[in-house]
């Protein structure tokens, strides 16, 4: 009785769980071509820097695909992690820009200008680690992830989920904004941390620096997509999908659901933090306006427009919404809000799977018919599903 | 009638400048001296050596304010004043014989958007000057952009100081200019010796209050009995009102901004604090804000500004008439709106003095530029790129206007890094 | 910090501080009641709740302008009519929104959140286009201005008393409606078991629509009452939404009593903290405490232990 | 495995050991009570299951049968009483820890992952890589594949391995769920109405399936179908209004007057 089973299993070993399916390789190639070749060739330095800024939001959207699309955890506080990552980077850059020579007109030279304005005479302890670049690079990811861990472990252990989690993350975003604005002596207040100049002596304000940072950013984004893809096709990815649909059942398969949710949330926080740090480097400052509720919800819409289950969609969605925002708000600032509002509604009512859904339903079938001879992708394995309930 | 006024004023301010120009550009084509002749101008290659958007007949400038988002409410007036000023300058022949063309961008109340759009105006559009920004945060966001790409920003809002840049002309007051004379006045005239500070929680109120506290404690030998800050948008002030009642200050000194203002004054009134008896001095309420607060809620409060719509002089009458003609009878004009109106004129005068649109030359030529046609009266640019101006104290009336009760006798020197106040 | 004041002063201050807390409490209850119905009973997250409030506030503003211009003799009484109009307008818009949007999303609560956020953006821009970007102030009839002298040093603002009275009336009305009326019975039936309620002949779609309309209508009245205290601008609604949701969640979403208890504890905490700390820090600490408690006790203050 | 080697449990063979003589129960439920809002859904329930015993719980609707299973597998927390599994207290453990200890549970309505394929459903239930790190680094190696194919064959789904579970028939979904339990290889298996809602053909196949899988483990079954109960039960516990009404062999229970009155007599 074993031989037919083994034969069957052999036939399946060939390719039953590849790292990426052909269609995914194609998507990756298209995306990489766009952000690494096409856009840099087509756009001038200014526009390219702008795209670089948008791509930092794509990190957040990518995290949301894992955490919201796959694990079903909607966080309305991703701005918190984006902001924390960005602030960590900004603190390092600010310290570098506040050398005693640069700040000799202050009453206490060598500390950031806003501290001096607020009668702070020595560097607060939590700023000290940011004198070191390697430590900063670690903290950029570690601080948001630890914060995410603290928030999520407490809540998921107690099975707070769904709408409650969304509301609480939103409240945390609100709290952090008020705190940053209120503690301006330590944080730069509502102005944020501005006038950042050099990264370890390298001037980040020049056009060539912007170009280099753009490619670093794009490279990191593709790296994060590959990580997310690894997670998605691992058993953990399937557990996330299973959990989203039947959380109880996963428990009765012997998994500690809270642990998996915490992982998904922390991964999303880590991605957001990397995006935040790259944002600070490319834009040259960080302010509390990225921490609050409004940017956090806008970042959700990027993921929704791209398709909440599609890693590549997250990037496309982010680029599309931001492109629309920039071009609309240049010509019709009033219409833009109507447009954005309508986009939210449309994506929920009419296109719950976003751009990726349109691609899969309209374009992919035609493509596969063309290249069907290469290898027919298997619709059965991919989790094509309507949004979680 | 409005046109008459404008033209009169324009003529008045052009004639001495023309002479200066003559001296500065000896041998330059005579055509340059004919302000109303569009064709007449110095060759563009001479007045623009740094690749700005200047043609033989046109010069491009940017206006960068929030048209959308929470700050749109505040920034509307400034933007309107800048457009009015530019229209008037164009009607009078433009700058160096060139009409001013406006490119307007929306900062959308979002600081990175300000930075992004500022960069666009400088890098893509090569604007010769940009008039804009309102909040400190937006200015901080664009400042590195202006310094990096060598642009020229005319910033209209009264602000906290602690800044000075080659690339910015601050047409509003820095904090000491706005506050100190007012505190002296309230101390002398109203016997103010105990103060309660209440402000919104961000850099401008905190810095202003810091300066005010030093002045009260060190110069006036008075006492600050309370200092409170609220998140932006806060609407519940009953607790602070109780604290005010408890501490019984002679003077309530406020810098609450935005929507919070309305709640603050309404609740103050409801709690029985009568502004005809209790002295309240604000540095954040202009005619614009009273529109939302309601005159009856704030009547009796003193505001410390450099400009009120009710200033009685020829310049201001002309300005108010022209502004209402352009933007509607119901519009009101506050301090920042007037400061914004100064920007284009100061730039024009500087360009004409420098004989060039080049930013470096303008930055250098800005010192000691005088503008006699300012609605607030005579103003002058200090070498530190801030304006010399007077401080006025006005008392709010129920109709939303201010009755001016004090005007500083002299122009006050701008001092963005005040010694002894940091 | 109390050393400088007499005992009488302190007593008066604490009395007035307590009253300040009560006003804040009334405001919170008004904001949260409508949401407690929509979120607690229907499970819909209405992020546009603040905008429904602001709609009510704008209606009050229109009424006030109209009476001032055309019926100055009736101006003292306009506020009552204004509240009614606010209720009807916000309620009607709410029913329209339920019909056009919400009813497709009952099974996807997280999606209602996104869709209603979109709705709130549209409403904000609509307010801005119609009423202008500037904040508008509503002129109050003279009898609502000023304060009542309770003792020499204790004064109580009249508009505060009025807000408290309105809150009490509305709360009692809603409680009667939900727990005593036939409509309330149907609402609770539908929420507990939609299929069964439908099977026994309740028109569940109609109940949904009226429930949502009721929640929005109460938001409208809240907005109307708000004009006495704060300002009305296109984006004012967004300021309240986080507080309001926290109150409802903290109270234990399904219970009106919980909402009231939660509004009471949050308002008293905040108002007491405000007296000792700055407004910003008082707000931060209050919200932190609420979030902290919710992390440890996610079901909120009042929930029944139910079989899962 | 060879079907012919299985003991024919359908004949209702008695367990080898006498329960009174053996204190080492596999599962000991003692004075278990749970109340919802004062309503005691389970009230002072005690019973003991031996290794390899097949125990059926019967009782009218609302007797608390499903709640007892919920309590054992940690889905509901007990108000009082204890549940000992191989000497280990279960009332304090999380659901996943209880499963990892060796207790498997099949739900009343088929509970499978609609969005995943049959293969993936089984793979998730495979008892390896249950930690976050383990799941990330989990390899679909030969052992996993062989085991899945083996189980798939047992549950009649070897041709549906690549199909999404959503598209299975009701009976196939039940089998898949049983398969998911089977791959965990639990020592105590709890089944909640395993043949409810099945066609006659499916029922026969299911009985055959159950027959195979109960070998070498203890089984706790809730069932209404008396014919089925009589076929498989070693012993029967009758619950009524949250309390144990009667316990013993089917024969004895059937003749208990209390039972006849409340349940069988109707």
UniProtKB/TrEMBL annotation, chain A:
Pfam families: BPD_transp_2 (PF02653). The keyword Nucleotide-binding does not apply. The keyword Transmembrane helix applies. Keywords: Cell membrane, Membrane, Transmembrane, Transmembrane helix. It is found in: Cell membrane. Its main location: membrane. One of its GO terms (cellular component) is plasma membrane. InterPro entries: ABC_transp_permease, ABC_transptr_urea_perm_UrtC, LivM-like. GO terms for molecular function: branched-chain amino acid transmembrane transporter activity. The chain crosses the membrane at residues 25-43, 55-77, 133-156, 163-182, 212-231, 252-279, 299-323, 335-359. It is a multi-pass membrane protein. This is Urea ABC transporter permease subunit UrtC. It comes from Methylobacterium planeticum. The lineage of its organism: Bacteria, Pseudomonadati, Pseudomonadota, Alphaproteobacteria, Hyphomicrobiales. The gene is urtC.
UniProtKB/TrEMBL annotation, chain B:
SUPFAM superfamilies: Periplasmic binding protein-like I (SSF53822). Residues 1-40 form the signal peptide. Keywords: Signal. It holds the Pfam family Peripla_BP_5. It comes from the Bacteria. The keyword Signal applies. NCBIfam families: urea_ABC_UrtA (TIGR03407). This is Urea ABC transporter substrate-binding protein. The gene is urtA.
TrEMBL record, chain C:
Keywords: Amino-acid transport, Cell membrane, Membrane, Transmembrane, Transmembrane helix, Transport. Pfam families: BPD_transp_2. One of its GO terms (molecular function) is transmembrane transporter activity. It is a multi-pass membrane protein. It is found in: Cell membrane. The chain crosses the membrane at residues 12-40, 52-71, 77-101, 113-131, 158-179, 212-233, 239-263, 275-296. One of its GO terms (biological process) is amino acid transport. Its main location: membrane. One of its GO terms (cellular component) is plasma membrane. Belongs to the binding-protein-dependent transport system permease family. LivHM subfamily. This is Urea ABC transporter permease subunit UrtB. It comes from Methylobacterium planeticum. The gene is urtB.
């Amino acid at each position: 009785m074993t031989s037919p089973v083994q034969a069957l299993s052999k036939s399946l070993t060939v390719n039953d769980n590849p790292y990426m399916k052909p269609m995914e390789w194609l998507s990756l190639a298209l995306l990489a071509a766009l952000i690494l070749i096409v856009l840099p060739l087509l756009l001038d330095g200014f526009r390219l820097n702008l795209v670089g800024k948008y791509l930092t939001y794509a990190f957040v959207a990518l995290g949301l695909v894992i955490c919201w699309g796959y694990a079903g955890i909607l966080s309305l506080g991703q701005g918190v992690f984006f902001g924390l990552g960005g602030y960590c980077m900004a603190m390092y850059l600010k310290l570098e820009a506040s050398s005693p020579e640069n700040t000799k007109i202050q009453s206490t030279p060598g500390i950031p200008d806003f501290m001096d304005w607020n009668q702070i005479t020595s560097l607060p302890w939590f700023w000290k680690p940011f004198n070191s670049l390697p430590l900063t690079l670690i903290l950029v990811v570690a601080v948001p992830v630890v914060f995410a861990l603290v928030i999520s472990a407490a809540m998921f252990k107690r099975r707070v989920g769904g709408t409650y989690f969304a509301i609480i993350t939103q409240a945390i975003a609100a709290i952090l904004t008020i705190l940053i604005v209120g503690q301006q002596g330590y944080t730069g207040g509502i102005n944020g941390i501005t006038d950042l100049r050099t990264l370890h002596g390298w001037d980040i304000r020049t056009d060539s620096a912007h170009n280099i940072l753009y490619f670093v950013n794009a490279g990191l984004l593709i790296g994060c997509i590959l990580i997310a893809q690894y997670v998605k096709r691992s058993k953990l990815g399937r557990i996330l999908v299973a959990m989203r649909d039947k959380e109880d059942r996963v428990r009765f398969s012997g998994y500690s659901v809270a642990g998996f949710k915490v992982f998904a949330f922390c991964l999303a926080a880590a991605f957001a933090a990397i995006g935040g740090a790259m944002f600070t480097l490319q834009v040259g400052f960080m302010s509390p306006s990225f921490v609050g509720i409004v940017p956090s919800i806008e970042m959700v819409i990027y993921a929704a427009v791209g398709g909440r289950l599609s890693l590549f969609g997250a990037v496309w969605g982010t680029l599309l919404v931001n492109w629309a925002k920039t071009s609309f708000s240049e010509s019709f600032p009033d219409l833009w809000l109507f447009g954005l509002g309508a986009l939210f509604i449309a994506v929920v009512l009419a296109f719950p799977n976003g751009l990726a859904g349109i691609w899969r339903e309209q374009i992919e079938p035609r493509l596969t018919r063309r290249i069907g001879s290469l290898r027919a992708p298997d619709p059965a394995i991919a989790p094509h599903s309507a949004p979680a309930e | 009638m409005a046109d008459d006024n404008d033209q009169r004023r324009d003529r008045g301010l052009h004639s001495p400048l023309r002479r200066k120009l003559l001296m500065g550009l000896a041998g330059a084509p005579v055509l340059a001296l004919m302000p109303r002749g569009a064709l007449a101008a110095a060759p563009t290659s001479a007045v623009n050596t740094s690749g700005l958007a200047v043609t033989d007949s046109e010069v491009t400038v940017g206006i960068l304010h929030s048209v959308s988002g929470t700050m749109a409410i505040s920034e509307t007036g400034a933007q309107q004043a800048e457009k009015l000023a530019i229209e008037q300058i164009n009607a009078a022949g433009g700058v160096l014989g060139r009409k001013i063309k406006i490119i307007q961008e929306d900062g959308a109340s979002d600081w990175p958007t300000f930075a992004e759009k500022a960069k666009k105006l400088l890098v893509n559009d090569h604007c010769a000057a940009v008039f804009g920004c309102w909040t400190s945060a937006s200015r901080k966001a664009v400042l590195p952009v202006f310094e990096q790409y060598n642009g020229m920003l005319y910033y209209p809002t009264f602000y906290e100081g602690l800044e000075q840049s080659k690339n910015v002309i601050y047409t509003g007051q820095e904090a000491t200019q706005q506050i100190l004379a007012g505190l002296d006045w309230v101390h002398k005239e109203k016997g103010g010796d105990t103060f309660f500070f209440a402000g919104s929680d961000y850099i401008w109120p905190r810095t202003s209050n810091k300066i005010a506290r030093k002045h009260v404690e060190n110069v006036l030998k008075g006492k600050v009995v309370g200092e409170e800050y609220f998140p932006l948008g806060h609407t519940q002030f009953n607790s602070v009102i109780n604290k005010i009642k408890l501490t019984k200050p002679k003077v309530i000194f406020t810098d609450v901004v935005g929507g919070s203002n309305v709640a603050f004054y309404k609740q103050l009134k409801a709690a029985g604090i009568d502004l005809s008896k209790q002295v309240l001095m604000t540095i954040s309420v202009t005619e614009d804000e009273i529109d939302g607060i309601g005159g009856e809620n704030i009547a009796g409060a003193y505001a410390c500004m450099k400009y009120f719509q009710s200033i009685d002089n020829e310049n201001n009458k002309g300005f108010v008439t022209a502004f209402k003609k352009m933007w509607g009878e119901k519009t009101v004009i506050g301090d920042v709106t007037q400061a914004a109106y100064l920007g284009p004129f100061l730039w024009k005068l500087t360009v004409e003095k420098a004989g060039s649109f080049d930013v470096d030359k303008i930055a250098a030529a800005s010192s000691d530029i005088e503008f006699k046609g300012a609605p607030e009266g005579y103003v002058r640019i200090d070498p530190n790129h801030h304006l010399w101006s007077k401080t006025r104290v006005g008392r709010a009336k129920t109709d939303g206007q201010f009755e001016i009760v004090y005007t500083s006798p002299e122009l006050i020197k701008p001092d963005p890094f005040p010694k002894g106040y940091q | 910090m109390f050393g400088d004041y007499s005992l009488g002063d302190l007593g008066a201050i604490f009395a007035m501080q307590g009253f300040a807390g009560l006003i804040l409490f009334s405001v919170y209850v008004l904001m949260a009641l409508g949401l407690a119905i929509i979120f607690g009973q229907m499970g819909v997250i209405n992020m546009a709740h603040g905008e429904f409030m602001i709609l009510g506030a704008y209606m009050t503003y229109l009424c006030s302008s109209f009476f001032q211009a055309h019926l100055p003799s009736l101006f003292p009484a306009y506020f009552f009519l204004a509240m009614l109009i606010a209720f009807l307008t916000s309620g009607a818009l709410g029913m329209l929104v339920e019909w056009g949007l919400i009813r497709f999303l009952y099974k996807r609560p997280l999606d209602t959140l996104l869709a209603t956020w979109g709705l709130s953006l549209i409403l904000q821009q609509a307010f801005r286009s119609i009423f202008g970007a500037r904040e508008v102030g509503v002129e109050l009839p003279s009898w609502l201005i000023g304060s009542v002298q309770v003792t020499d040093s204790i004064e109580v603002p009249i508009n505060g008393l009025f807000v408290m009275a309105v809150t009490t009336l509305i709360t009692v009305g809603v409680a009667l409606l939900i727990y005593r009326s036939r409509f309330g019975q149907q609402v609770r039936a539908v929420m507990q078991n939609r299929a069964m309620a439908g099977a026994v002949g309740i028109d569940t779609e109609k109940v949904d629509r009226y429930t949502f309309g009721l929640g929005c209508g109460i938001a409208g009245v809240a907005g109307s009452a708000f004009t006495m205290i704060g300002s009305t601008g296109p984006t004012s609604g967004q300021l309240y939404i986080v507080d309001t949701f926290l109150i409802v969640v903290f109270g234990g979403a399904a219970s009106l009593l919980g909402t009231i208890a939660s509004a009471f504890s949050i308002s008293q905490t905040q108002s007491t903290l405000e007296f000792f700390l700055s407004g910003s820090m008082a707000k931060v600490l209050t919200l932190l405490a609420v979030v902290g408690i919710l992390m440890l006790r996610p079901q909120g203050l009042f929930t029944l232990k139910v079989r899962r | 495995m060879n079907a012919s080697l299985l003991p024919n449990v359908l004949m209702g063979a008695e367990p080898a050991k006498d329960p009174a003589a053996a204190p080492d129960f596999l599962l000991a439920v003692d004075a278990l009570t749970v109340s919802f809002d004062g309503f005691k859904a389970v009230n002072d329930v005690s019973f003991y299951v031996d290794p390899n015993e097949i125990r059926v719980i019967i009782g009218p609707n609302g007797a608390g049968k499903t709640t007892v299973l919920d309590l054992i597998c940690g889905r509901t927390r007990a108000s009082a009483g204890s549940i000992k599994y191989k000497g280990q207290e279960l009332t304090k453990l999380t659901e996943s820890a209880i499963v990892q200890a060796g207790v498997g549970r099949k739900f009343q309505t088929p509970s499978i992952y609609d969005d995943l394929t049959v293969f993936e459903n089984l793979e998730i239930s495979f008892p390896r890589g249950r930690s976050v790190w383990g799941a990330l680094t989990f390899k679909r190696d030969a052992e996993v594949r062989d085991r899945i194919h083996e189980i798939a064959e047992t549950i009649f789904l070897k041709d549906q391995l690549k199909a999404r579970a959503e598209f299975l028939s009701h009976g196939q979904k039940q089998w898949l769920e049983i398969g998911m339990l089977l791959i965990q290889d639990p020592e105590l298996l709890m089944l909640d109405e395993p043949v409810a809602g099945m066609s006659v053909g499916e029922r026969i196949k299911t009985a055959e399936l159950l027959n195979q899988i109960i070998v070498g483990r203890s089984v706790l079954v809730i069932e209404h179908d008396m014919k089925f109960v009589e076929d498989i039960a070693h012993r029967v516990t009758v619950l009524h209004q949250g309390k144990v009404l009667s316990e013993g062999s089917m024969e004895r229970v059937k003749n208990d007057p209390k039972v006849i009155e409340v349940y069988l007599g109707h």
